[in-house]
Automatic annotation (TrEMBL):
InterPro entries: Inositol_monoP_metal-BS, Inositol_monophosphatase-like, Inositol_monophosphatase_CS. It catalyses: a myo-inositol phosphate + H2O = myo-inositol + phosphate. It comes from Streptomyces polyrhachis. This is inositol-phosphate phosphatase. The keyword Magnesium applies. It is an enzyme of class 3 (hydrolase). Its EC number is 3.1.3.25. Keywords: Hydrolase, Magnesium, Metal-binding.
Amino acid sequence: MIEEFLAGYGPAKVEQAMRQAAADEVMPRFRQLEAHEIAEKRGPYDLVTVADQGAERHLGRSLTALLPGSVLVGEEGVSEDPALLEAVGGEAPVWIVDPVDGTWFFAHGEPGFAMLVALAHHGEVLASWTYAPAYDEMAVAIRGAGAWADGERLTAGSPAPGADLTVATSSPQYISDEEHRRLLRLETEGVARRDTGSAGLEYLRIAKGELDSTAYTWESPWDHAAGLLLVAEAGGVNATVADEPFRVAGGNALPFVTARDESTARRLLGLLRD
């Protein structure tokens, strides 16, 4: 059933569902949010808005209707009921959703946010969609069939010989001092490190060859599932410090690296392990 869905008009219908959710719930509120429509979850940098909540409900209705028997695991739903996360590795096809990835940017009127959707089964991501509504850019990846952005095939390629590696890492506001100190090991000759923006858009930059790598210290599947498949289908790689592929169902050794090519990943993992 999933194979038929992905081989037919299913991917296009997912795109339509995402564009409609963004048009109905997200973009009308962009730069229009009232103070009471923004709330803190775990601190001033971890925000949720009515747009996040409305878009996740919208996608919950539309996506599960497209694939009967599927379930949705979204950031906001798991925030209310952590037990929902168990479905990521379960028997039913699961839609892994971040309705507004980069809520801080959205809430502050900046365009660097995305809507992320991945379709997984038994913990394996089979397809993904990354939509940047403020730029009207859509990227799609189907396992084994490649990655595409607005009709153009994506190829991550390799960094230019001798150039500094550009790396986006977890922002210090969201992580422990110990995790931050570990990531600072990447601040060495030949590596240009910066704090991450929207994870989904950083993965898209890797797939397009505009960013060399990311190094992240958290494993929330809604932040990573879509982008990891996008990068993989563009020819990139990922690995944890235990030298294992990142698992969206959890239980990963952290931090983990995603990169345009194997040699870049190996170099950065070596620095993180020291």
